[in-house]
Amino acid sequence: MLLLFTVMVVALAFEFINGFHDTANSVAAVVGTKVLSPSRAIVLAAVTNLCGALAGTAVASTIGRGLVEAQFVTSTTLICGLSGATIWNLITWRFGLPSSSSHALVGGLVGAVVATTGGWDAVIWSAPVEDKPWFQWGGLLYKVIIPMLSSPLLGLLVAFVWMSFLYNALAPFRAGPVNGIFRKLQILSAAFMGFSHGSNDAQKTMGIIALALFSATTAGTLDHAPQYLSFLYTPEFRIALWVKIVCAITMAAGTATGGRRIIKTLGRKVARLHPVSGFAADTTSGAVLLTAASLGMPVSTTHVVSTSIMGVAAAKTVKNLRLQVVERIVWAWVFTLPASGLAGYLISRFIRLF
After folding, report:
1. Burial of 242 (0-12, 13-18, 19+ CB in 10 A)
2. Domain containing residue 25
3. Cα angle at 68 between 25 and 88, to 5 degrees?
4. Per-residue pLDDT, 267
5. Which residue among 37, 184, 312, 342 has the highest number of C-beta atoms inside a 10 angstrom radius?
6. pTM for the whole thing?
7. DSSP summary character for residue 128
8. Helices in 22-65 by DSSP H: which ranges?
9. In 10 A of CB 167, how many CB atoms?
10. What is the pLDDT of residue 134?
11. pLDDT digit string (tens) for 174-183?
12. How many domains does the chain have?
């Protein structure tokens, strides 16, 4: 029982850290264009993240039962995986690098499970859709690895095309009135981006907690639990309403604490933004994230937002990009999955020594 509660505490700690670590993802553009101050943008992000977190459970289901075999997962495994992801998140936050909390969580979980089982058999690489055995759509390969590569490219291309269209459509009008209109529209696009971020990122911890409750129930840990803890009993994998609410509030609280280091990197150092380009970046990244969430894909908000900002900047001229900063971000992306996986693996192996 103590281990179960430890898992929940560590998971919520990860959710809180994810909130302030990824705050910049949903407000970088609106801060970079100086439409909102960082403080006001963070409040907007906290509220919209909370709403988005309550919007669905597809991503939570992928994390909880679509990446590793549940029978190999214990409370200790989940603690090790979450710890590995949290350590990597804190390291990248300390250096202001917008790495992926999503991939850190997946890497930590997979690394810990591999250490627990001593092999890769517990990892679900691919899985068919229900009633369509010929259609491989689930598993680590299709839900994480392929989207990890395709979603940033999609963000880059869509943002480039969308921004090019806006440039051509707005060319006959004076810059002053156009900027005035888009300064207002960018608040709406930032809210949409915050909602999309919450719908994807907050659900990941929901999946971890639901998996912990399901594993504890099937292992018999909750058989003799007091009556007042009966709400923890989960004989079938599901995302309970209280889990959604607690995770949503925790992420919103983390978001409210801010993430100014990464806001500075994304909103001001990657490219110089204006209200129109900020609007294009937010609407692009929000649309990609919301689509991925509806498909149960835990994609990286950081990847999508960063490449969307790059796309709108490149639509005007590639010289707008500060390639040295882009290079630092790309290296953070490359190392996130293996580094967090290694951290989860090593923590799990270390604990098994005692």
Report:
1. exposed
2. 2-351
3. 40
4. 47
5. 312
6. 0.85
7. E
8. 23-32, 38-53, 58-65
9. 15
10. 47
11. 988 998 999 9
12. 1
